[in-house]
Design a protein that fits this description.
By secondary structure, the chain is α/β, with parallel strands linked by helices. The protein has helices at residues 23-36, 127-134, 176-187, 203-211, 228-235, 265-276, 280-296, 299-310, 313-319; strands spanning 10-16, 41-47, 76-80, 96-100, 121-124, 143-145, 166-171, 194-197, 213-218, 239-241.
Length: 320
C-alpha cells in the first residue's frame, strides 16, 4: 500500500509480457526499482493477460504496483522491446523512455526497428547498440547510453581458486551447437575437464556453478546488446572467456580482464588453452581487472545515471 508521500509522486508506467525469465526482463526490473527509489517518481506496471506468474517473475514481490494499462493516467511511460505494441496513440506531451537492449532494433527486417520512428528518450545498454540505431537514420528523439549494470546481491560466497571443483564450465544455452563442438574438441584431451551447461537453469544455479569454476566459457549469440552472463562470471571470480558478440566490446577487454576471441570454435578452444596456461600471478591479475570492471558496472552507478535523466526529463523531452 502506498503512503501519503507516494501519492505526491509522478507516475511512470511500465508494461511487460512475462513468459519466462530473461536478461531483458531483469534489466527492466532494475529500472523499475530505480524509479521506486526516486524521490519524484513512483512506478506502476501493467502485464499482458497471458503473462506468467511463476517464481522467477521478479514482480511477485511488487504486486502492489501492478495496475491496468492506462497510459493517459501516467506522467511518463517506460517501454522496452515490443511494449510499443500496446500504444495506440502517442501523446506529444507525455515523455516516453525507451530502453534499447539489442542491436536488432537497427535491423529493418525486425519489427522492433519500426518503433524507432516513435518519439522517445532512448537509453541504450551499450555504445554499440547506440551506434547501431543511430546508423539507421530513423531514430526520433535523443539517444543516450547507460551501460548495463550488475546486481550482485544474492551472489554466492566466492571460494578460493583451490576450492573450485570445476575446471572449465562451458555455458552454451544460447549457442548449443557451438558448445557441443567445443566440448567435442576438448574431450580428447585428458588434461582438460569440461562441464557443459546447455540447458536453462535459474540464475542462482548459474551463479553457483560459475563460482565453482576456475574458467567459465560464456557463449552468447553472435550479436548481443551487452551480454550480462560474462560480467556475472567475472563477479564470481572465474577467468572468463566470452567471444566477440559486438555488445560486449566495452567491458570484455581481451587479455586484460578476460579472453574475447573471435566467434569461432577454433579461436574459443585456443582461448581456453591460453586460460589454462596462465601463471598464477597472471591469472590473479586478470581476476583483479575483472573485479574492477564489475565495480564499474554497479547498480548504484546505473541508478545515478538514470536519475540524471529523470531529473531533467521534461527539458530533455522538450528539446528532443
Amino acid at each position: 500500500m502506498m503512503n501519503s508521500s507516494d501519492r505526491d509522486k509522478r507516475v511512470i508506467l511500465f508494461r511487460r509480457d512475462f513468459q519466462r525469465f530473461t536478461g531483458g526482463h531483469l534489466k527492466v526490473w532494475h529500472y523499475f526499482n530505480h524509479v521506486l527509489a526516486s524521490e519524484a517518481y513512483i512506478p506502476r506496471i501493467a502485464f499482458t493477460p497471458t503473462s506468467k506468474w511463476d517464481p522467477t517473475n521478479p514482480w511477485n514481490e511488487a504486486r502492489q504496483y501492478i495496475s491496468d494499462w492506462n497510459p493517459s493516467a501516467a506522467d511518463a511511460l517506460f517501454l522496452a522491446g515490443k511494449d510499443w505494441e500496446a500504444i495506440s496513440n502517442l501523446n506529444a506531451e507525455q515523455p516516453v523512455v525507451n530502453l534499447i537492449q539489442h542491436p536488432r532494433h537497427a535491423n529493418p527486417e525486425d519489427k522492433v526497428s519500426g518503433f524507432l520512428r516513435n518519439r522517445a528518450i532512448r537509453i541504450c545498454v551499450s555504445q554499440q547498440v547506440a551506434d547501431a540505431i543511430n546508423g539507421t537514420g530513423k531514430v526520433n528523439g535523443p539517444v543516450l547510453v547507460i551501460p548495463n549494470a550488475l546486481e550482485t546481491s544474492g551472489f554466492p560466497m566466492i571460494p578460493d581458486q583451490t576450492e573450485r571443483p570445476i575446471q572449465v564450465l562451458l555455458c552454451g544455452l544460447k549457442a548449443p551447437d557451438l558448445a557441443r563442438e567445443i566440448d567435442r574438441r576438448l574431450q580428447a584431451d585428458e588434461n582438460v575437464a569440461v562441464t557443459p551447461l546447455l540447458d536453462w537453469v535459474p540464475r542462482a544455479e548459474f551463479l553457483k556453478r560459475a563460482s565453482e569454476a576456475r574458467i567459465v566459457v560464456t557463449l552468447p549469440r553472435p550479436l548481443e546488446g551487452f551480454y550480462l552472463p560474462a560480467l556475472e562470471a567475472m563477479a564470481c571470480g572465474a577467468i572468463v572467456i566470452c567471444p566477440d558478440c559486438v555488445g560486449n566490446r566495452d567491458f570484455c577487454r581481451d587479455q586484460v580482464n578476460c579472453f574475447r576471441p573471435a566467434y569461432q570454435a577454433d579461436a574459443i578452444v585456443a582461448a581456453i588453452y591460453r586460460a589454462l596456461a596462465l601463471s598464477p600471478p597472471d591469472a590473479e591479475k586478470m581476476r583483479d581487472n575483472a573485479r574492477s570492471t564489475v565495480a564499474e558496472h554497479s547498480l548504484d552507478r546505473e541508478r545515478r545515471s538514470f536519475f540524471n535523466i529523470l531529473d531533467k526529463i521534461e527539458d530533455i523531452w522538450a528539446a528532443g
